[in-house]
Amino acid sequence: MRVFFTGGSGKAGQHAIRHLQEQGHTVINADQVPSGLDCSELLIDLCDSGQVIGAMSQFADFHELDAGTGVPTYDAVVHFAAIPRVMIGSDGECFRQNTLSTYNVIEAATKLGIPKIVFASSETTYGVCFADGELKPAYVPIDEDHPTVPHDSYAMSKVCNEVTGRSFQARSGADIYALRINNVIEPHEYEENFPAFMKNPASRRRNIFAYIDARDLGHMVDCCLKTDGLGYEVFNVANDDMSVNITSDEVIAQFYQGVPVKREMRPDETFYANDKAKHLMGFAPKHSWREVLGDV
Known about the structure:
Elements: E1 2-6, H1 11-22, E2 26-31, E3 40-43, H2 49-56, E4 76-79, H3 91-111, E5 116-122, H4 153-172, E6 175-181, E7 184-185, H5 189-199, E8 212-213, H6 214-226, E9 232-237, H7 248-255, H8 275-281, H9 290-293
Parallel strand pairs: 1-2, 1-4, 2-3, 4-5, 5-6, 6-9, 7-8
Helix pairs in contact: 1-6, 2-3, 3-4
């Protein structure tokens, strides 16, 4: 597939693009800064609607001129570009850029008849991550039916983007999939960061004790590209195990007292349920911190 990918210069985007290329897809990265990846790139401002639709409807590299058959079309759009969290700049600017860029990308894609749009939502939509103080989930494990009542501008922007995606899908008929991505971990971060998580499990409370390996996130994007006909859907994206080395029963006893537990959980099972992605998308995460740290 020929894929228009926004935000490929970022942490998650770089790994996703590499994985998509390994699967045989042609990826054009649209970002404000070069990625350093071996792919065609267009440097644009996604908050400018004219630049967005222009970039999606023009040649992306010199080799595309050789066929002499006009501008090639895109098979899919993957939208990862965003201000990645609160407390980088002002709250209002975070909300403005994240919502406006997403509107522009989805609007351009649907106007151009691109049939598949995948965009990054977030674990923060459930309200736990950036809450002032401790906010416990309504139940565990958290699935896609859990209430999304965010307490911060970043999570608000992601909930707004999900409404935008649903609305454009209803009027266009395109497949639009929102990925509620958990804390993205690169391979080198296991050795660097996870020993501290084992010593202090409480440090993972805001991430619902979960994570997603950047390589497995790329796999999930590829699953979305290969799965047609679902209309609008939202998916949690996380690895199968927790990011701490205590059991699920111990997590419940220490952090989720009084929180309803919807079903019996495996000892190392993630509290950020990924069953829907596995069932509908064929998502099959392969990686774990245990590959690097063992059973510590």
